[in-house]
């Protein structure tokens, strides 16, 4: 009887999580700066946007992340898109997962978020509010322009990866996993040259190939670029530190 009751509670909880509208302003709970995330949620589709001003080796730069995913019960799965001034538009970076909890709680890509009270943080028209005390430590502008709204059901049309590039990347991933960095490198380079291939998604892979081939300077260059786009990714950071140490 207890098992039946527990199963019913879990089912109701999952359906409730899906029914909740996640749209609004959220705040990352585990970081001290650039914590605001704007979420748009429609049906089973979700888009979350975050603007950051990270510092990398003494240089501060603007970085935008967009999480686009599908909400199914309490689970979110999708792709992380990235944009910085050097990129013409958003590019696919990697996959991400998330989860929907109760009491206004949400996790995206391992980052715990809490929904903000819209009444207490409502910005002026066309602007993004700044907390008391001025700009956050890593954000130079005191006020930033709000990003235009994106319909989550249409976001797939904004950025997509062609089948040829996906197939080449998958072939490269299999070769690299089997300890064959040279043929894997050839597949990734083909993917980079293919129509519509996302260069951002290939940077870490290319760096790992050059690491495997003991081409440490080239590995460092690719991994440095990958880390700038994905600064909180511990795996990329470890690979970059390794390449940097070996390159001398």
Give an account of the 3D structure.
By secondary structure, the protein is α+β, with helices and mostly antiparallel strands. It has two domains: 21-155; 163-247, Alpha Horseshoe (Serine Threonine Protein Phosphatase 5, Tetratricopeptide repeat). Helix content is 39%, strand content 27%. The chain is built from eight helices and twelve strands. It has helices spanning 2-19, 118-121, 155-158, 163-177, 181-193, 199-212, 216-229, 234-247; strands at residues 24-28, 36-42, 45-52, 55-56, 59-60, 63-72, 75-83, 91-100, 105-108, 111-115, 127-128, 144-145. Strand 8 (91-100) and strand 9 form a beta hairpin. Residues 4-18 and 119-145 have low confidence and may be disordered.
Domain unit count: 2
First-last Cα distance? 65 Å
Low-pLDDT runs: 4-18, 119-145
Strand content: 25-35%
Main sheet overview:
8 strands, antiparallel, barrel
Helical content, roughly? 25-40%
Q: What spatial form do the alpha-carbon principal axes imply?
A: globular
Radius of gyration: 20 Å
Total count of strands: 12
